[in-house]
Amino acid sequence: MSTIQAYVRKTAPRGRTTEQVGPFLATFSPDTSHPMLNYAIPDDGAKPTAAEIDALTAAYRSRDLLPRLEYFTDVAPDLEKLLVDAGYGLERRVPLMTCTPAARVDRAVPSGIRLRVPESGEDFRNLRRAQNIAFGEPADPGDVGQPSPGVRHLLAEADGVVVGGGLALEIVDGTTEIAGIAVLEAYRGRGIAAALTARLTREVHEAGAHTAFLTPGDLGIGHVYARVGYQPAGECVHLSLS
Fold first, then answer.
1. Portions of the chain given CATH number 3.40.630.30
2. Residues 97, 187, 150, 211: what is their CA dihedral angle, to the nearest 10 degrees?
3. Pick from 46, 95, 106: which is nearest to 213 by CA?
4. Do residues 232 and 96 touch, judged by C-beta distance below 8 A?
5. Residues near 236 by beta carbon (within 8 Å), at least 6 away in sequence
6. Radius of gyration (Cα) for the chain, nearest Å?
């Protein structure tokens, strides 16, 4: 678990500013206040004092951001109680799932669906739009910018229309994260999410990753990931102070 948390500490700061506040790495996205893009990560074994938690809270308040943390509970088992005692509330608790090359199960692409790598700015906008709609976010993706180095994107098309997609983040020390797996509601239940996950997972394993991990947003999608070889390995918690 420490290896996966270390991966997050190394990759989360990409494109963000950071500040070490006691036993916390606080990350701040310069162009958005979205809480999922502004959060702190604790050191392994973190047992902050009340003053250190107050300092973390102040670091986010001073930027008009929601004080927030995301981390894997096994690396800091005493932290959640300390944060709750300081007024933080649990947003959600989600499983952590991992997949090794030996455990991976390939899945066929459903009939009528094409998986491909985005090739243009329009492809990336359509991919992001489909993900936003699937996740209940505003459909307009705005300026999607340039793809980050080392990140693999994959979209799913039906009759030339982008209906879903996902991505694999860069590989660091043999570990990578599969994220953003999304399919429009009208196309769910056909095996598209499983095919996207299996393809991305195979690609990162073939590129040298020995561990791919993800955090499913709900039990239903967790069953999809299990069908392509992902197994429960722990949990991730999100806490914030409103």
1. 113-233
2. 20
3. 95
4. yes
5. 70, 71, 72, 73, 93, 94, 95, 96, 215
6. 18
**In three state form, how does the secondary structure of the chain look?**
CHHHHHHHHHHCCCCCEEEEECCEEEEECCCCCCHHHCCEEECCCCCCCHHHHHHHHHHHHCCCCCCEEEEEHHHCCCHHHHHHHCCCEEEEEEEEEEECCCCCCCCCCCCCEEEECCCCHHHHHHHHHHHHHHCCCCCCCCCCCCCCCCCEEEEEEECCEEEEEEEECCCECCEEEEEEEEECHHHCCCCHHHHHHHHHHHHHHHCCCCEEEECCCCHHHHHHHHHCCCEEEEEEEEEECC
The answer to whether the CB of 230 falls within 8 A of the CB of 97 is yes
Q: Tell me the pLDDT tens digit for each residue of 53-106.
A: 999 999 999 999 999 999 999 999 999 999 999 999 999 999 999 999 999 999
pTM: predicted TM-score of the whole model, two decimal places:
0.90
CATH: 3.50.30.10, 3.20.20.140, 3.40.630.30, 3.30.1490.270. Which one for 113-233? 3.40.630.30
In the predicted model, is pLDDT for residue 161 greater than 80? yes
How many alpha carbons fall within 13 Å on the CB side of residue 59?
Answer: 22
Residue 142 pLDDT exceeds 90: no
What integer is the mean pLDDT of 118-125?
94
